[in-house]
Design brief:
The chain is mainly alpha-helical. The protein has six helices and two strands, in the order αβαααβαα.
């Protein structure tokens, strides 16, 4: 059974508007102009790991997906054990010549094959449902983050907001870290959609 707990997610990159005016012959060289533009960029980054562990949306859906994954695994394990028992029972009857006819043996063998097929179909269905739930979570996370950052950046006016996960950003000054500010803002806006019975598992 595959585990679909937290996969990758995308964070909005906010781009600055470009100046469409054509450069004149007496303007500064391209290298000098590019240097000045780069120096004027406002850049910030968000720590992915912190967002995933502190944003209430992520915390709640993590528990939800974990619970559903565990339930699916337990169901498959139980069905798998039933199948193994049926196969062992069939094999024992074959060895002991317990079947009164060939037709009886073939009938039980066919029943085991149907049971095996049913188990495979159940596994595929549960994995598909869990994958859909995970995709729903990823889409919801991306949408909530994009909408928040669109409002957030109306006043902050960053040119780029990057994600930092592992070593994808090798070096960054702490002053560019807006993670906690974003988490606080997201949690302030977030209204839980998780049912109470699911939320109770956190206690």
């Amino acid at each position: 059974m595959k585990k679909y707990i937290f996969l990758a997610f995308t964070v909005l990159t906010v781009l600055a508007s470009c100046n469409n005016a054509s450069p004149k012959m007496d303007e500064k060289s391209n290298s000098a102009q590019n240097s000045e533009e780069t120096a004027g960029l406002k850049i910030a980054f968000i720590e992915v790991d912190s967002l995933m562990t502190q944003y209430e949306f992520c915390k709640e859906f993590s528990l939800l997906l974990q619970k559903r994954s565990t339930n699916a695994r337990n169901t498959l394990n139980a069905k798998g054990q039933q199948l193994q028992n049926a196969m062992a029972n069939f094999q024992q009857k074959i060895q002991n010549n317990s079947f009164t006819s060939r037709e009886q043996a073939e009938s039980q063998q066919a029943a085991i094959q149907r049971q095996q097929q049913s188990l495979q179909e159940l596994q595929a269905r549960l994995e598909n449902e869990l994958a859909q739930e995970t995709q729903k979570y990823n889409d919801g996370l991306r949408d909530s983050l994009q909408h928040f950052l669109a409002e957030y950046n109306k006043t902050k006016k960053y040119d780029f907001i990057l994600t930092k996960q592992g070593d994808n950003i090798l070096l960054a000054a702490k002053r560019y870290d807006i993670t906690q500010d974003v988490i606080n803002g997201l949690n302030k806006r977030y209204k839980s959609t998780i049912k109470e019975d699911t939320k109770s598992t956190k206690k």
